[in-house]
Amino acid sequence: MRPALLLSALLTAILMGCGASPKTPGRPTRTLTVFAAASLTEAFNEIGTAFEARHPGVHVMFSFAGSPMLRTQIEAGAPVDVFASANQAEMDTLVAAGMLGANQPQVFLTNRLVVILPSTNPATVGQLQDLAGPGLKVILAAEEVPIGRYTRQALENMNGVFGAAFKDQVLANAVSYEDNVKQVVAKVQLGEADAGIVYTSDAAAAPDLKTIEIPQDLNVIARYPIAALADSQDPELSARFVAYVLSLEAQAILRKWGFGPAD
User: Fold this and answer.
1) Using one digit for the tens of pLDDT, what is the confidence trace for 208-253?
2) Under DSSP, is residue 35 helix (H, G, I), strand (E, B) or coil?
3) 99 and 123 share a domain?
4) Distance CA 127, CA 216 (A)
């Protein structure tokens, strides 16, 4: 072949190589966006990995935060396929706005509250009554998020046992109010407080912390609903994910992370 023709052939091959390449085998071709309460972080990451393994070509992208913040983002038009909330109130708001369409929220787990302490327990907190002790530093979630409201309900329950002023005394010891439960855990782990109140699932995900159980008659049961959004970009895949979360396999993962079954 003459040099000029050879050069032309090489240039053609190079230009063709710069065009669209075929899809890489195994590369995700469908993305499912899931907004989920912060307390679901560890369990849902594991569930997402298992779901992807059963649906080749699918990538599950999570956004974890306080449920009210996630609901606000959905109302503002964030592209979301599935929403899992730590309380019913956020779902009810979306139902009223017609954002779930025919997708009725389904409760898929329950959770309870527990007191967490730094591993060294420098304040020697040993019982629930100690939370009201003078000078104790307590970190709680803000009242606007589900865990914050559940915490105040539990403290109200304790008033009947430890005295009518117990709740106010504990709140007076609060040194900060956090936007989500994971921030409460992190600050107690860092030693920025002597105690905090979180979900039992969050304590299970932080085995370095000490805990004090809250008796059943004083505790609060949190029920978590899940639903696909009406404007999901992939309704069929969204329905599959919700169904998987409700499956025995996914429920076993949730139990492993400290959650209780839906009642």
Assistant:
1) 999 999 999 999 999 999 999 999 999 999 999 999 999 999 999 9
2) strand
3) no
4) 15
